[in-house]
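Hi P.,

Sorry for the delay on this. The queue was packed all week, but I finally got your sequence through. Input first:
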Amino acid sequence: MSSSGKVGVEVDGRQLTLSNLGKHLYAAFTKGEVIDYYARVAPVMLPHLRDRPATRIRWPDGVEGGRFFEKNAPSHTPDWIRTANVPTPGSSTGRETLDFIVVDDLPTLVWCANLAALELHVPQWKVGPRGGIRSPDLVVFDLDPGPPATIVEACRVASLLRELLAEDGLEAYPKTSGKKGLHLYVPVRETDRTSDYARSVARRLAAEHPGLVVARMDKSLRKGKVFVDWSQNNPSKTTVAPYSLRAADAPSVSMPLTWDELGSCQDASGLSFTPDEALERVDELGDLLEPLLGEHKSTLP
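Then the structure:
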């Protein structure tokens, strides 16, 4: 079909119109391939999106064109898509609340991909069945290496952070950011203390390893060190979802990792995954972040 054509499809009983499937959203990866990837990775991705209001980052003209962040559901959103009205104090829109899309099912995920929402970002908390905002059930640390440090140094910091968390009886689960860093997740019982806890842990790690770790925002402090960003635990912040694509010259995936992979990392290229590689890993390893979804979560100390 031509890159500008439209095609009607049925996805789990929902009728969707897909368009411009031949359009290149990356230099060598079309919109049709983006949709196909998300449809195939959906079984492991959707549980991490479910009940979490999604911020979609869209590149309608591809990664070489402009992007925009979309929080509010657009006016053409089908009525079968779940939305959640979420407070957004200080929003640039001037509105106190916005209607976020909640990606609970495959048709919604495909619909988002058809709008060139290459990246999906979600908070560390959920909305309840009646739309109530629940307390966070995840702690997340974003490990961001400052050049000349790379993801290799971030892996060292991740292992140190894992040990520190274990002292508090907490288990951490890593994934790549899909770019140059790592994310560590800790599943916890719902609590409003996640931000304070993450800040204290990051500062403690920086104090114990000042030559390798920084926990302050100042970019001037980051050269050759790994910034342990705890701020994404603020309820107004989001983190790129597991298995999401990232926008770059070539498509990469924010991919769960094993601790053995982190421990043996010698080269940054070894922890970069294409969509095809991501799907192969899922077939082989399943969802390495499945423990984030369980009911048996630890209590913050």
